[in-house]
Amino acid sequence: MIRALRAALLPRVQWLAALLLVFLLLAPWLVDRYTLSILILVLYFAYLGQAWNVMMGFAGLLSIGHALYVGLGAYVSAGLFVHFGVPALLGLVPGMLAASLAGAAIGWLGLRFRIGGVYFALLTIAFAEFARIGFDHIDWLGASGGLFLPVTGGGGFDLWRLSGGIALYYYVSLALAAGAFVLCAALLRSRLGYYWLAIREDEAAAQALGIDVFRCRMAAVVVSAAMTAAGGTFIAFYNNNLFPESTFAIGRSIDIILGPIVGGLGTLVGPVLGAFVLTPLGEVLLGVTQAAGLDLPGLELVMHGLLLVIIIRALPGGVWPALRRRLGFLPGAGGGAR
Amino acid sequence: MPAALVANVLVSGLLAGLVYGLMALGLSVIFGVVRVVNFAHGEMTVLAMYAAFVLFKAFGLDPLVSLLPVAALLFVAGYVLQARLINPFVTRPEHEQFILLAGVALIIVNALLMIFGPDAQHVDLPYAYDSLALGPLLIDKVRLYAALAAVAVALALFVFFRRSRIGTAIRASADNLVGAAVVGLDFKRLFALTFGIGAACAGVAGTLMILLDDATPALAPDFTLLSFTIVIVGGLGSMAGALLGGVLIGVSEALAGLLIAPSMKSMVSFALLVLVLVVRPQGLMGGKR
The whole model's pTM is what? Predict the structure, then answer.
């Protein structure tokens, strides 16, 4: 896995990456609390973007309903904690299972009935919306009034229950983002990863070569859903509250896909780069408008919209592939996917 | 449950459904010709709601009058959008088109949020609470007018596509793009016209929608999804299917609101959407996909 990671990072950026890694490892001692909270969001979106990228970037399945999997992971683990005191790291498992099942159901419907392209994307949106309205009516999970996790009060470092100071959440988000990077690097170099790329590039040709397109794509959906659910568990215990309206809304799904698209679809660095660009940009915009005495709640999203339009027009592959070319890196062994 | 109540709810759902149907018709026309899914359709509809609201506040224009200027505004916006932004994307992969329009949608809805704020805005009409009594039926006048206007615009479009030269040219480039280019049709201009017409449908539907509902930016994604649901149920690319789908969704949502719970009514549409995608993916009135 370390080899996969090394190969994924191109030689000339290795020292830069190492420097970044050292900074990230020591960040709680280097930056203030506010910056740390932004870094947590950056890493959280880098993680979710990586998870979404498995489906769209690797297997070519456009999902605009990933808020569903975040919400399932969040609600299942938080519900188990609130009602039975199940610790977060234990509640993570049923949360991931629930999301995998939902992913499998959607994937099965979409793939078995040959619902392709935009229709598949609509199917994913429909299920997320279904969940949004449905969870409004599940009293056991707080319904539309919201589910609140008891706050145990600052400090501490209880990984098992995901309860403690901001440093705990920071390191968990860092571990998630780094873990997802390594996992995706390994997946891309696996047999399954090559099958995914083959299917993404030419489904008919892949099938003719004897690749089981249905099973490979199902695997992508389930892996992506399960990974996304773990992010949901994290955000539930970080924020300590959950509302169906904000958890499952289509805007949340779009937040997830922005990073990988801006950074570079199907690349490993893309989702990380996208998160590092977009999240701080939003914070800076917020800071500038507030300093100017303006209250413009939609400005950040207008900028995101403009960015999407500009990127997809000028650099449809995302920033990272263009940057990589500009810096004169050649893709490492294993092809252009990195 | 008294039959009169059910009948009233059915009629009210039917009338609202015709307005939904006109909105979805715009999406269907765009997809049928340009082959691009307008992910900003609900956002355009809400833009029209606000345009009608502004015209009412500034000049006291009744939405039934401001139909024309709002439709013209949306037509121009749609034409420019297609000519400047979307035309280079018609040959790009589906997900890139989708992302482009998702970006446009984000810009529209959040610009509205910045200008008008999140609060609901509504139009006070003198006849807002009038109704017609037809036996046991009590029909809201605004609903009836809105539905009639929607049907009139839809009929005008049918005639335009069947009878006019430009309508025929647009249908030709939808049927066979290469053939249309060979006989000298400027399909880029036709695409822009089509997108303008589709946007104008959203414009008329949005203007009528403000008679039925208050305008908030938050409605936009719901309208986009509603339009998609309707055209998929009715059959993407089929004009009659869009109206039929609109009526079907309008009536089933109204019934679900009465029989189950108003907050759960859109679940019925999503269930219907999934059912249609699985059982008859080309939609009720669609040909082969």
Answer: 0.88
